Amino acid sequence: MSESKYQHMVPQFYLNYWAIDRKDNSENDEIFVLDKRRLEIRKQKTRNVGGRNNLFNVGMLKGTIFGKDFFERALSELDNRFAGCLRTMIAYLGGAKDEIDEETRWGLAEFIGSQMMRHAVPQTFMRNRIGEESFDKIMDASGNLIKENGFSEKEFRESVMTMFTVRDVLTGAIGTPHNPHNDPSRDMFLDYRWVVAKAPPDKKFVTSDFPPYLHKSLVKRYELRKFSLPYEVYFPIAPEYMIYMFRKEVIFAPTTKEYEIREFNKGEVEAMNSLKAIYCEREIYSDSNEELERLKDILKGREAD
């Protein structure tokens, strides 16, 4: 894909998967997401950012293997559930609710677990997860899709397989030893302490293209605070809010109350956004500014909800 004239930055929360109806080919809805982290690793010039090697085309996964609109339906259902959780979270942050209910906690945990994408997943786990026949169909169809879309086999397999996989964000574990089909992330907010960080009015958290991240003693390494934690995760849920999770057994913690709001000062937000491990922005590329305006209108409507 050539470099496009029009670009629009959007929060990662709203940009997990968007299918943009391209007027030049109405049968193929596509979304092209620029991965700046990969761009930096490859040290490519800005004028080449539109190259396919730096773009994640979700549209290529549509229909061919799983049936018409499979991903759209599944992701729409997940997104709708999380939208309700986010409304509850915002109401809690604004003081309109006294506590976060159990349903919201589970919903947030499920959403965060679902964001573990673009990680290598053992094929044996995938075979157990979706079945031998379905797995073979994916692999058989991958050759044509890779050829048609210019993606490497590794990229394709990772993007497809991780759609069905959930990892424990703090341990990296897939399932559990006694039951590989368990979803460990569903218990995340029960097993770990978590705090919602709120940025100052004039500052925003940068969202990550690889959420969530596992960090060992990140606080100590970057001297953001005077204590260190064995494991911690920073996960932006919106430009103004970030979930901060850590082990309950840690003695020194930023709060004695779970689910508490923690205000970030300007320096902390700048420090968080400067960390290369979690710093990544996404851009929508389109040949039509009209498409981008339509997308922005949709996002504004969702934010209003």
Provide a concise account of the structure shown.
By secondary structure, the chain is of the alpha+beta class. It contains 10 helices and 8 strands. The protein has a 4-stranded mixed β-sheet. It has a two-stranded antiparallel ribbon with strand order 1-8.
What are the salient characteristics of this protein?
alpha+beta, two-stranded antiparallel ribbon, 10 helices, 12% strand, disordered N terminus
Largest pleated sheet:
4 strands, mixed
The beta-strand count equals 8
Radius of gyration from CA coordinates: 20 Å
What count of helical segments does DSSP give? 10
The computed structural class is alpha+beta
Order of helices and strands: EEHEHHHHHHEHEEEHEH
- Outline type: globular
Please state how the strands of the largest beta sheet are arranged side by side: 5-6-4-7
Q: Which regions contain 5 or more consecutive residues with pLDDT less than 50?
A: 1-68, 113-126, 141-153, 155-189, 208-230, 276-287, 298-305
Q: Which range does the strand content fall in? A: 5-15%
**Helical percent range?**
25-40%
Spatial separation of the terminal alpha carbons? 34 Å
Tell me, rounded to a whole number, the average pLDDT.
49
3D architecture notes:
The chain has 305 residues and is an alpha+beta fold. The protein has a domain of 84 residues. The protein has 10 helices and 8 strands. The chain has a 4-stranded mixed sheet with strand order 5-6-4-7. Strands 1-8 form a two-stranded antiparallel ribbon. Helix 4 crosses helix 5 and helix 5 packs across helix 6. The radius of gyration is 20 Å and the shape is globular. The chain starts with 5 loop residues before the first strand and ends with a helix.
